[in-house]
Request: fold
Amino acid sequence: MTTFNYGEDHLTASLALAIARGEVKGIISAASRNKINQSSQVVANIADGDHAVYGINTGFGPLCTTQISKEETRTLQQNILMSHAVGVGDPIPTEVAKLMLILKVHALSKGFSGVQEATLDRIIWHIDHDIIPVVPSQGSVGASGDLAPLSHLFLPLIGLGKVNHKGKTEDVSDVLKQEGLESIELGAKEGLGLINGTQFIAAYAVLVVEKLRNVLIHADFTGAMMIEGLMASTKPFSKDLHNIRAYKGTQHVAEVIRILLNNSEVVESHANCTRVQDPYSLRCIPQVHGASRNAWLHLKELVEVELNSVTDNPIIFSEDHTISGGNFHGQPLALPLDYTCTAAAEIGNISDRRIYLSLEGDTPEVPKLLLKETGTNSGFMIPQYTTAALVSENKGLCFPASADSIPTSLGQEDHVSMGSISGRKTLQVIENVEKILGIELFCAAQVMDFHSGLKSSVAMQAIHDFVRKSIDHIEKDRVMSDDMEKAINMVKTGSLVEIVDKALAKENLNLETSFSTDFDRF
Reply:
């Protein structure tokens, strides 16, 4: 198995997910252990001295001027975990909590935090044995780090809290007994080092990067299906057009559409038709999908910076050089997450417009409501109600959380990012868009059925065949929810990516990198 060196190697979103999913093993090298131990010794020396250093021998937040005796430093670190574990709401997904552990180990292993080697080894034990703390979803303002969720994340180190273990939620004290382990005793600064940081926001951002990439790919697939099925012009996807407005995302999407529709008899059949131009939801796919892809790329770049950063406080450079700064502030991720939230919502918005367009009956051979016999049959009218509801829900979720700030900590923390909310709601919006695109896939397959006398492009035919293996053509009203769920699942699981890659490979029509290529490449 491939290994990743915490604190040394460059961490990406895909690598973090690979570690979380057991595909890559994270380890701490001898060199990193040396740096960790040196930093831990510096903290121990400061704790033994009389010079006040925030978080090592002082209280926290508004109590930063209260000096703590050497005897009280260990009690202080345990107390901070207990007092700050005040999260509420449903638990976050186990994978997000596991990502938080991975991101925290990587940051602490850089040797600027003063944590003990044994503490990091215990966190890695939780990761490797899939014993993942239960973390409530609400309570972080994303400024002094994600204090509440990180406190819950690390309560198990001191024998408190609950963990997900072998598919069950158990008290960590019971699990430790089963494993023959004791809780650990935190040293000076360790509690603060564990709960200061942006790992809650960053873990959500990692999933956003992965899931939005999948959404962007499938939006191009379903958009291309609608272009073909609704007999739209392919001129708006011309390379010449996009070379004179050279946004990377726009050019990429236009190229994808050209490849997906290559040699389509359906497209060629109306090359000389009298229609002057198509509605924006078809004609402007490169501009809209491309803008969202640019937002995704920007977020991905910033997430990589954050994943390889030290975000706790204070930072330990040497015994004479410690800095109490603000690397824990979540604003660098909160802003792009809010921007990405809107970018994701727009993919759902334009998808819903294409669904609506497909129902109008203005395309030759394609009947109104996608059924030949209506009146007693409502056809595909109501699935668009569902996408309209999802689009509207997403609009409400697009208010930028980072536009708000409520002072905390008796005014010491007088500007906060609310980035934890940005991360949670962006993921929620993306999951809604997965449903919208699934319904578009469901409708687009029905649209394509009405052009059975003409050959589709190889990519479109491959997608259509795959859909029709589990969802039959609809001729009269039936309960559609099961069909819709099947289509939604195709989008969520990325099933179409391999199907399209294989179809294009047979025709030597691949992009420079295939759709299934590691998402660290654009």
Observations:
- The chain has two domains: 2-197, 204-313+336-402+419-445.
- The radius of gyration is 26 Å.
- The longest strand covers residues 2-5.
- Residues 2-197 form a domain with the Fumarase C; Chain B, domain 1 fold (CATH 1.10.275.10).
